[in-house]
Amino acid sequence: MRPDLTASLGENVPRYTSYPTAPHFHAGIDDMVVRGWLQTIGAGDEISLYLHIPYCDKLCWFCACHTKQTRHYAPVASFLRSLHSEIETVAELLSGKGRVRAVHFGGGSPTMLTPDDLVALGRRLRAEFEFLADATVSVEIEPNDIDEARLDALAQIGMTRASLGVQDFDPRVQKAINREQSFLQTKQVVDGVRSRGTKSVNLDLLYGLPHQTLQSIATTVEQALTLAPDRVALFGYAHVPWFKKHQTMIDEVWLPDPAQRLGQSQLAAEMIETAGYQAVGLDHFAKPGDSLAIAAATGKLRRNFQGYTEDQCETLIGFGPSSISRYKQGYAQNIVATGEYEKVVDGRRLATAHGVRLSLDDQARAWIIERLMCDFSFPAIELVECFGDVGQGLLLQASRLGNAGSRLLELQGDHFVVPIECRPLVRTIAAKFDKYLQAGTARHSVAV
pLDDT tens for residues 282-340? Predict the structure, then answer.
């Protein structure tokens, strides 16, 4: 990285899994608005589903997800009854329209569910929605939850991709983040899902954690690669204690500084690419024949709330507390508080708390940000063809970034391109097109 850019490493910017980002959603998007959006989905439209399970049996201190710890299963069982109600309500509004291309179970810990409840949830989805024959089913797995019965249940619901959180295998790091998980334990889960027919395994690694060093990162990556994952996600730890109070359990003096974070990410990326994986976007890697690598190579890579994806669906319907849906018209987020969510959906109402309707300007900026995050570039001609005068105005803004002293963008042919040395700062560059950022009061994690 050029020396003049290193000062930007510690800037706080969004991760841009959506635009506008969630802090700019408002209460004007409610149950009635989303009902109208659902009813515009066509019979042949392909849709994706996301199910948010807001419980864990142990709280990891690094986590910034909407979840809560419980040692008892009764609250989970109560939530699941409401989740089934929400699924039924949405299915009734769709009246058989929409065909499911992809399902993602996230959390929280979806694998905290009992085997019977996992199977019942999978059956409910297939009873209420039409699934395409080659639909994908992805599940976020907490290895500490897994036993043989749960592995069997995941196979029974048709899981095609398992995503395992590794973070770091170093015992000192694991203790500092309250997530103890041995390499052997992780390997047993990987072997277990593969033996039951799951073709794709993703491992999530983190840099920027307390007590991490270049040596611990290197050791973790080396161990992870022995499992031959199909995909690797390399995320930077987002330290946001003002948003997630349990992160105060992590002493900030244990954390690497921005320059050390950059070094850790670059070392890990180099090791993963040297092992034969292709870089995908900012922080993902995939084997050359993987559908994610193919999407990146063909300009079809997308970005949503689960990160980088090959999913081309315009509609993503979220279920469960805090889940965010994306429609052609805009975004809608469910109520965060689980108890309030249950009251609303049990009354056969949608749990929408807030959202945003996309203007043409929002759509144009979202398109630029997504292409920058996915391709590190965007085509100028296509921007104008799709968005007219709005796109033309944004081209002028891109030109100014190219002419500025930092040269964050370069015009190469008809594409504005992020120079290689600036790519670790692509979130910062994307933020230049975010008209809401300066006017908002939300705080974000560091850029790298």
Answer: 999 999 999 999 999 999 999 998 889 999 999 999 999 999 999 999 999 999 999 99
Cα gap 57→62, rounded to integer Å: 15
| Residues in contact with 304: Cβ distance below 8 Å, sequence separation at least 6, in sequence order | 17, 18, 311, 316, 326
Where does 197-311 have alpha helices with state H? 214-225, 258-274, 291-297
Cβ count near 184 (within 10 Å): 7
State how far the alpha carbon of 356 is from the alpha carbons of 21, 34, 176, in Å.
9, 11, 38
Give the confidence band of 419 by pLDDT, cuts at 50, 70, 90: very high
Beta bridge partners of 204: 165, 233
pLDDT tens string 94-128: 999 999 999 999 999 999 999 999 999 999 999 99
CA distance linking residue 157 with residue 385, whole number of Å: 43
Prediction pTM value: 0.93
Transcribe 24-75 into DSSP letters: G-BTTS-HHHHHHHHTT--TT-EEEEEEEE-EESS--TT--SS-EE-S-SHH
Characterise 69 by phi-psi region: left (phi > 0), alpha (psi -120 to 50), beta (else): beta
pLDDT tens, residue by residue, 236-254? 998 888 878 888 888 899 9
| The amino acid at 333 | Q
Cβ burial, residue 126 (10 Å; 0-12/13-18/19+)? middle
| Distance (Å, whole) CA 53 – CA 306 | 14
CA distance 353 to 28: 9
Amino acid found at 72? H
**How many whole angstroms separate alpha carbon 211 and alpha carbon 203?**
21
